[in-house]
Amino acid sequence: MEFDQANQMLEEFDYFAHQVLTGGDVHPDGTHGLVDMKTLEAIYEAASTDRRVHIS
C-alpha cells in the first residue's frame, strides 16, 4: 500500500492554531488526556502486579 506522506506534527500544529484563532473547541480535550493517563497508570500497575487493574 502506498500513502501520501504527511508531516503529522505540522498537521497537529495547524489544526491547533486554527481552532485557537477561530475560537473552536480543541479535540481531544483534557478529559481525553486524563483517560489516557489513567490507562497508562493501569498498564504499569498491571504489569508490575500481574493482575487486572480496573480504571475508574
In words, what does this structure look like?
It is a single chain. This protein is mainly alpha-helical and 56 residues long. The chain has a domain at 27-56. The chain has two helices and no strands. The protein has helices spanning 8-22, 30-49. The termini are far apart. The model has no long low-confidence stretch (mean pLDDT 94).
Question: Secondary-structure blueprint of this entry?
Answer:
Blueprint: H1 8-22, H2 30-49
In short:
Helices cover 62% and strands 0% of the residues. With 56 residues, it is mostly helical.
CA radius of gyration: 17 Å
Q: Describe the biggest sheet?
A: none
Number of strands: 0
Mean pLDDT: 94
Low-confidence stretches: none
Distance between the termini: 40 Å
Strand content: under 5%
What overall form do the CA principal axes indicate? flat
Could you spell the SSE succession in H and E letters?
HH
Helix content: 55-70%
| Number of discrete helical segments | 2
Structural class designation? mainly alpha
Q: In terms of quaternary structure, what is this?
A: single chain
